[in-house]
Specification:
Blueprint: E1 3-6, E2 12-13, E3 20-25, H1 26-29, E4 35-39, E5 45-47, E6 51-54, E7 58-63, E8 69-72
Antiparallel strand pairs: 1-8, 2-3, 3-7, 4-5, 4-8, 6-7
Amino acid sequence: MQFIEFKKEHFKKDEETHDFVIEISKAEIGFGDIKVQEKKDDNLYEDADYEIKDEPVKVIVRMKKPADIRVNF
């Protein structure tokens, strides 16, 4: 399994829902399942509270608050 890490600064605020989103190209992560983990204070990763919107050319990760995350694919 591979992963990409994102910092909380990579998130953009959705002004309509007040959620925070990251768009990831499927060219980067492929077309399989993904799992998002949040980096905690002890530098370990735990399952994050997130929603995924799967579109033909990209995946949108939506969270209530920005965080440093690891996207496993």
